[in-house]
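User: Hey, quick favor. My workstation is busy. Could you predict this chain's structure for me?
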Amino acid sequence: MRSSLNLVFWGFLFVFLRFEIGIDILSDPIGYFLIALGCFGLREHYPNAQKVGILAVGMILVSIPTAFTNLDEVNSLGWSIYTAVLLFLKLILAYFLFLVLKTIVEDYDHTTLINRTNTVFIIYMISNLLLLANASFSMNVSGGFWIVVGGVLIFATFIMEIVLLILIRSIRKAEPVLVSPIIDA
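Assistant: No problem, here it is.
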């Protein structure tokens, strides 16, 4: 299970980072592929992980243009819609992943990690939903206030992406190690 959570961690790290030399070296499709592999590895013990894996496979196909296009530099309506859809699908993926992570930490029976996972889940979802809502409303309203609100929400979601990565790493490290009893012959 550690290797599966490791794949999920590295997948989210690839999706989070952008290292560009002509094309994105750490491209989103590779990240979603790693997430899918990790989730399919978890499905034996956590059947809900298969939903995340299937969604991650779909995200591989949807995110292919991100390897060749920096979405921050494009200013057309079509790319703006694509970016919003991509963020929304990533939020759905994160939602289902959080459900799997909650089940994992409940199996560990680690109270601190259960509380931390629930807190990160709530704040992650709220910050991302507020960012999507702000993107929808701010284009119709003028004024510097919405720019400041957007900047704060972008910063909050940036921090929450890092917190999600740290949480996945913590859950991976907290996995109980099964020790087989020594059999005297």
